[in-house]
Each structure stands twice: as C-alpha cells, then as structure tokens.
Amino acid sequence: MGQKLKIAGWVSIGVVAGALTTVSLQTVARGAMTPLPLEEIQQLSAVFGLVKTDYVEPVDDKKLITDAISGMVASLDPHSQYFDKKSFKEFREGTTGRFVGVGIEITQEDGLVKIVSPIEGSPAFRAGLKTNDLITKIDDTAVKGLSLNDAVKKMRGEPNTKVTLTILRKEESRTFPVTITREEIKTQSVKGKVIEPGYGWVRLSQFQERTVDDFVRKIEEIYKQEPRLKGLVLDLRNDPGGLLDAAVAISAAFLPENVTVVSTNGQLAESKATYKAAPEFYQRRGSGDPLKRLPAALKTVPLIVLVNEGSASASEIVAGALQDHKRATIMGSQTFGKGSVQTVRPLGPDTGLKLTTARYYTPSGKSIQAKGIVPDVMIDESEEGNVFAALRMREADLDKHLGSGQGEEQKDEAREKAREEARKRMEEEAKKPVAERKIPEFGTDKDFQLTQALNQFKGRPVLVSKTLTERKEEKKEN
C-alpha cells in the first residue's frame, strides 16, 4: 500500500464536536528535528522566567510548559490539540467504540443532562434509567452549569468504581438517587432494518473500529429478510466521523473495485495519498477482507444517502465518493464541511499531539473544507421546514477554521438571523410533550426525510426544500 500515510501515530478525520473520535494508522516515527528560531525561543524562556519569579504565587513548571504547548497547538485550527494523559486516554477510547462508564446517550436540556437513551444491557439500563430522565447531580456535583463534556467525564471512570446520579423523573414528579457501578461499555455504531417490503435502511452513527464488521452483519440480516431488495437508504445524518479506513471500506462496499474513494494533500510527502476501493486500503493487519461476505447485489442496489449539517468528516468522504461516482443520490442538507486530516503522534507513553496534516479531496478533486457536500436533492428535516438546522454548528462557524484552498470564501449574512429564529422555535418545542415535537427519531414512520427517500425510490413526488440553498464558504477574518 505504497501511498498510505507513513506518519508516526494515527490518521484522524473526525470532527471536533463532542466526545468523539478518530484514528487509524500507526507507523514509524520521523527522525529529523526542525531547526528552532533562536530569538523566539529566548523570548519564551524569558517569559517563563518572569512568571516563575514575579507572578503573585508559585506556578508549577509542568503546568506552564503544558499550557504553552496547548496554546501553541490550539491557535492553529479547531482540530489540532495537545493531549495530556487523561485526554489522550479518552481520545483513544472514542475510536474503539469502548469506554468505561454507566452506558447512557445524553443531551442537555435547561442546563441539566437529559438521558436520550440507556444503552441496552448497560449498568444504566439495568438500574432502570429511562429516556427523558434528567440528571441533576453526579455524586456531589450539581449538573447545572457543567458543560456536556464535563458531565461525561464525571460519569466515566475506572471499572468497578461507583457513581451516584440524582435523577429527576418529571412524569412521576419525583427525584431519587441511583448508585451505578461503572463497567466497559461497547457502543453500537450501526443500526438497520427492512423499513417496508423491498426497502432497507442502515444508519451509521460513527465510524469506529467495529463499524465495518457491524455493517456487514446488518446488511446480511437485511438481505436474509429481503433477498430482492429494491432500494437501500444509507443514513449518515448527525454522523460526526471517525476512522479513515472505515470510511474507505463503507464506500468500497458499494463502489467498483479500485476506483478512487478519497485523496489527501499536505506539506509532507507522506500526506499526499490516494485511497481506493480495494482491500489493501481498509483491511486491518492480520485479518481478511471484511467485505467478502457482502451479497454481490449490494454493488448495484439503488442507493440513497441521507446527510445533514451534522454529517462530518468520514461521513463526507463516503457521501462525496458515492456522489462523484454517481453510485448514489445524496439527499438532505449541506454537510458540516470538515475536509481536513489530523495525525495523532504519541509524545511519550501517555501523551500525544493531534495535528492537522492534510486536506482531503473527493474523487473529482473537490475540497469540501469549510463547505461540505451539497446534496443532489435538498430536503428539509421536517414537513414544517428546517426547524432547528440553523442551530447546528458547521466547520465554517468554527474559530480559526481552515479555508478550502480552492478559492475565495463568502460571508452568509442571513445565518445569524436564521439562528435566532431557530433558537426561539427550539424553546417553544421544548415546552411541548415529547410526542408532539417536530423532530422524530431517525428510522421511524414519522421520519420525514426517510419518507422522501422512499418516494424517490418509487418515483413518487418528493417534497424538495423551498428554502435550502447551497451555503458557500465563509470568508475568514484576518
């Protein structure tokens, strides 16, 4: 595999949003050290000395150096990051689909942590926690005021340790504590089913180490139930990305052998690479081709890919490859626009550096950095329109984001106005009973975009968005 990135560490293509995700290659360390600018290093040393001698109270040497490294890397772009011991461990957990915790999917509501769903078989599931339960305290810490990431960190820990959650269950008008013993949780990144005779739906929520194997099993199940599949929906909505080899494998499952899936280009010679729909670009060392078990019909079954503003990175690689090769119809709204590659290099046994090393390009050579994949058919998220889409952050909204390198960016003046309107609608929706809210769960019979995908398969009228337009790259402030 001559064009694979031969860089120390792993290749990372996940998005910065939330607790996730991302790594792939581990190879040999690079040897040569870059010459240091003497004058600037002397200035850094002088500042270090002044802080040590003149600051109001003593400051730990290690903290000063660590903060200096963190600041240097964080100033580059939203995805470059220095990992200390704790954050490096959490980062690696996110790519495996395994972590130690209580086993709940969560969001925020009114400053509290709201349980979206307990993971089946997890400690939280066995403890009787339910969808829509609110967590008001984690041990002795009040949740109000905590970020979602901070709440996640407090609930995670070492195996066989205990955490006490204080639960507010509104429908029963009661608050009660639940003590849960943490254990290793295996997240499920693939869901799927036959949604009606002749048509299947497969949803990928993240690209993890087990995603390809789980995808193959799910496709086998669908074809066993429905051998004459007339159409398949690949649902990548709100999938924030993950492992590069998993994205290449999922693309290869649908594409002809050896066509280009994605290419990368950066400053290093090793960053200039092309990934193709062939086993050597996605199979792991010591294992066979995970796609061999797939039915041959998957290469030709009519395919629709659903995407939205939350589809990022690895999701955009898959959507871009299938779109450029005209293998699928892309439906939904414009994707997140994370078209950059991160490499994670270990700096020691338990610290590391995640650094943006390349942009990636679809098979036709388009960079989607800060732009995203534009669907073939623009579809609103509900019959009432894009109720909350403007609230979702995209790459172009992130401070210090990279440009695409393929032309001038343009500012979208209407964006903030749309956001303010969406915030007001969100507040109104939150007051309604769950059953009456506008945005249903993906994959249900009330999933508006999935219904439009089925209409597209059947040649029925599709309710195309009257308001969605292509969003251009936004001009960066200097």
From TrEMBL:
PROSITE patterns: PDZ. GO terms for molecular function: serine-type endopeptidase activity. It holds the Pfam family Peptidase_S41. Residues 88-156 form the PDZ domain. GO terms for cellular component: outer membrane-bounded periplasmic space. Residues 401-440, 459-478 are annotated as: Disordered. Its EC number is 3.4.21.102. SUPFAM superfamilies: ClpP/crotonase (SSF52096), PDZ domain-like (SSF50156). Keywords: Hydrolase, Protease, Serine protease. InterPro entries: ClpP/crotonase-like_dom_sf (IPR029045), CtpA/B_N (IPR055210), PDZ (IPR001478), PDZ_sf (IPR036034), Peptidase_S41A (IPR004447), Tail-specific_protease (IPR005151). GO terms for biological process: proteolysis; signal transduction. Residues 468-478 have a biased composition (Basic and acidic residues). Belongs to the peptidase S41A family. NCBIfam families: prc. This is Carboxyl-terminal protease. It comes from Acidovorax delafieldii 2AN.
